[in-house]
Amino acid sequence: MRRISRSEKGTLQIAKEVAQKLTSGWLVLLSGELGAGKTCFVKGLADGLGIKEHVTSPTFTIVNQYQGDVTLFHVDLYRLSCFPEEDISLDEMLKEGIVAVEWWERDKEFFSNYRPRVEVHMKVLDENSREIELKWIE
Ligand SMILES: Nc1ncnc2c1ncn2[C@@H]1O[C@H](COP(=O)(O)OP(=O)(O)O)[C@@H](O)[C@H]1O
Ligand SMILES: [Mg+2]
Questions:
Q1: Could you tell me the pTM of the whole model?
Q2: What is the average pLDDT across 18-34?
Q3: Which of 44, 71, 80, 89 counts the highest number of beta carbons within 10 A?
Q4: Contacts of 42 (CB under 8 A, 6+ apart)
Q5: Residue nearest to atom 27 of ligand 1 (CA)
């Protein structure tokens, strides 16, 4: 499914709609260049999951954890070459909640073994417009 977002608000809204379809155990895999809006999308997810806390990019930590109606784990692999299995367990996180991963393509094979998952690919069209491709794999 392809959606066009014409503003940051639009992306927040689309992500909020996606959040309504997720339950504990879902993996949300985000790709797209720097500035495409991946973190913005995770903010919308958090909003949709009833998280009140301010969501910030976990670029300098491995994972951020938020509590809402369900737990949301936010991982960013930008500075890594693969998922750091020696530090965190994806299986454990998925048992507890929903896991959103930015730059998942750093370890494509690892994540491709997991389902259910939704792959979210974001493309910059112009300054304020983004194409958001959603691939649901159940
Ligand atoms: N339609 C849009 N959706 C999301 N972000 C947008 C949009 N239009 C402009 N932006 C801007 O693009 C930037 C996206 O940043 P961010 O979400 O951190 O990207 P990423 O995590 O992919 O690097 C923000 O500065 C945001 O205001
Ligand atoms: Mg980001």
A1: 0.97
A2: 98
A3: 44
A4: 15, 28, 30, 55, 72, 74, 100, 102
A5: 8
